[in-house]
Specification:
single chain, mainly alpha
């Protein structure tokens, strides 16, 4: 009985998605991409001069 309850709790935890955490991860990825693009564009601009 105890093993069945633990397995059911694990299944419930896996299926549950927290919208806040997903939003934070998406925004962190977006900002990281912006930082990489800004660095690359600055490097290209400085090499062209």
């Amino acid at each position: 009985m105890k093993k069945e309850k633990k397995e059911q709790e694990k299944v419930k935890k896996v299926k549950k998605y927290d919208k806040g955490r997903i939003f934070v991860k998406v925004m962190a990825g977006f900002l990281a991409i912006l930082m990489i693009l800004a660095t690359a564009s600055t490097l290209i601009y400085s090499l062209m001069i």
